[in-house]
Design brief:
By secondary structure, the protein is of the alpha/beta class. It folds into three domains: about 5-140 and about 275-340, FAD/NAD(P)-binding domain, CATH 3.50.50.60; about 150-270, FAD/NAD(P)-binding domain; about 350-465, 2-Layer Sandwich (Enolase-like, domain 1). It has helices at about 15-25, 40-45, 50-65, 80-105, 155-160, 175-190, 210-220, 325-340, 365-375, 420-435, 440-445; strands spanning about 5-10, 30-35, 110, 115-120, 120-125, 130-135, 140-145, 170-175, 190-195, 225, 230-235, 240-250, 255-265, 270, 275, 310, 350-355, 360-365, 375-385, 400-405, 410-415, 465. Strands 1, 2, 3, 4, 5, 6 and 16 form a seven-stranded mixed beta sheet that branches. The chain has a six-stranded antiparallel beta sheet with strand order 17-18-21-20-19-22, with helices on both faces. Strands 10-9-8-14 form a four-stranded parallel beta sheet. Strand 20 and strand 21 form a beta hairpin. Helix 1 (about 15-25) packs parallel to helix 4 (about 80-105) and helix 1 packs parallel to helix 8 (about 325-340). It is globular. The structure holds NADPH dihydro-nicotinamide-adenine-dinucleotide phosphate (NDP).
Length: about 475
């Protein structure tokens, strides 16, 4: 008789959990997966998928404006928010179904309910105890709310996906991925949007020039970008939400800032100030699984926690919180534990896109990181007006940057702001994973006329920086 009920018990049916379960079952392991909500996790239900659908929809307004330059006249354009949201929900429902069929088809036993860990090899779910040789915690995270008076009056991205109508005046707090993406979404559907960030420039951790350029483009779109500013409190009024703000205010386009404390009114305030790992209240700390004070689980290079039979992956561990990273971790563990083995997941050139408008794509090092790693860094930079816009009123500029090790010629980082930046950077991420050099980029024949060809035609160095 088997020592345990199952080989692997997976808690959480998001990107990491589903991929791990499905592959482990495919390799012959007996797998049980517990999920209390909808399958697919943050990405499918309240993240990447619905966000991207909303981004697509919000971009049409500009497209229609741009059509005039090409001779089109569009009359009577209207937007139906409830239709958009109904179609989005239907698509998510379809994906939930696909996930369920994939899991069941692979032989995974799916249990609906909240699981808690009761020992190194036991889990309790729906009042029953299940024993497992190994347990994988893949519970993801949830949006964080700052502890200020009135924070409960604001929404987070979770609630943004269920709004009944497009608000007229929106304050988005947080200059990270979600903040920039939702500022663009609301603006595209016609809201007046303020994007508020507590630091000097949005997107901390990204290339400094990229951070500055995206702010210029967001402002050009009509989004009020306020930096070095924080929300102090929120109060409900008869006409909206009164938000007490402390920080600085821009006096002119050339960034003259003046200290200010003021109260502004909005219809919706959305916090996009980071996410917290969903690891509390499930018995992990009680059985000795080590976590930091934010609830992030400590793992070794093989995603093993301080309790050797318990693994953790996805948004609850200290790696980039991105769906493809979670998928890679799930695949790695399934192959390692039950399959032919696998090389470790590489985190050195994880490409990423921020689906702001314009779009951002980036891979590799920022200029600052490049200079920390190399003695000589060559910087190639380009900014141009995309061909599609030349017959329109739009002044938006596409911006690109390549960072090269001045001693070895190896490409260290590639960054872009402009239409389809994520699509374009994905291909260059492959090249960077293969160790592409600047000479090899230069030897590549471009595809004309595209924006992407600029990455293989930037021959003149903008500057050389030395440590
Ligand atoms: P981020 O960590 O990206 O950004 C959080 C932002 O909120 C930062 O600008 C941060 O400022 C600010 N902030 C934090 N605390 C406060 C506070 N108390 N008051 C005011 N501002 C505050 O988090 P997000 O919520 O945007 O996204 C979470 C993660 O989800 C991302 O890091 C990313 O890994 C993932 N994601 C990926 C997407 C994609 O791939 N396209 C899309 C959406 C999310 P500061 O910089 O000063 O700390």
């Amino acid at each position: 008789m088997a020592k345990y009920d199952v080989d692997l018990f997976v808690i959480g049916g998001g990107s990491a959990g589903v991929r791990l379960s499905r592959m482990a079952a495919g390799f012959g392991a007996s797998v049980m997966l517990a999920e209390s909500g909808r399958l697919g996790g943050t990405c499918v239900n309240v993240g990447c998928v619905p966000k991207k659908l909303l981004v697509y929809g919000s971009a049409f307004r500009e497209e229609v404006e741009d059509m005039a330059g090409f001779g089109w006249t569009v009359e009577g354009m209207k937007h139906d928010w409830s239709k958009l949201f109904a179609n989005k929900d239907e698509e998510i429902g379809r994906l939930n179904g696909i996930y369920e069929r994939m899991l069941v088809g692979a032989g995974v036993q799916l249990v609906r309910g909240r699981a808690s860990v009761t020992g190194p090899h036991s889990v309790e779910i729906n009042g029953k105890v299940v024993t497992a040789e190994r347990i994988a915690v893949c519970t993801g995270g949830a949006p964080r709310r700052p502890s200020i008076p009135g924070a409960e009056l604001a929404i987070t991205s979770d609630e943004a996906f269920t709004l009944k109508a497009c608000p007229k005046r929106v304050l988005v707090v947080g200059g990270g991925y979600i903040g920039l993406e939702f500022a663009g979404i609301f603006q595209g559907y016609g809201a007046e949007v303020t994007l508020m960030h507590r630091g000097g420039h949005v997107l901390r951790g990204f290339d400094q020039a990229l951070r500055e350029h995206i702010e210029v483009e967001l402002r050009r779109k009509g989004i009020e970008v306020r930096t070095e500013t924080e929300v102090v409190s929120i109060k409900k009024t008869d006409t909206g939400l009164a938000v007490e703000i402390s920080g600085s205010k821009m006096l002119s386009d050339d960034l003259v800032l003046e200290a200010c404390n003021e109260v502004c009114e909005y219809d919706v305030v959305m916090f996009a100030v980071g996410r917290v790992p969903a690891t509390s209240g499930m018995g992990l700390a009680e059985i000795g699984v080590k976590m930091d004070r934010r609830g992030q689980i400590e793992v070794n290079g093989e995603y093993e926690t301080s309790v050797p039979s318990i693994y953790a992956m996805g948004d609850i561990i200290d790696y980039p919180r991105l769906t493809p990273v979670a998928l890679a971790q799930g695949m790695y563990l399934a192959r390692k534990l039950y399959g032919p083995g696998s090389a470790a997941v590489r985190y050195d050139n994880v490409a990423t896109a921020v689906f702001s408008q314009p779009n951002i794509g980036t891979v590799g090092l920022t200029e600052r990181e490049a200079l920390e790693k190399c003695y000589v860094v060559d910087v190639y930079e380009s900014s141009f007006r995309g061909m599609k816009l030349t017959m329109t009123e739009r002044k938006e500029r596409t911006w690109m940057k390549i960072l090269v090790d001045g001693e070895t010629d190896k490409v260290l980082g590639m960054h872009m702001i402009g239409p389809d930046a994520g699509e374009i950077i994905q291909g260059f991420a492959v090249a960077m994973t293969c160790g592409v050099t600047k000479t090899q980029l230069d030897a590549t024949i471009g595809i004309h006329p595209t924006s992407a060809e600029e990455f293989v035609t930037m021959r003149t160095r903008a500057r050389r920086i030395e440590r």
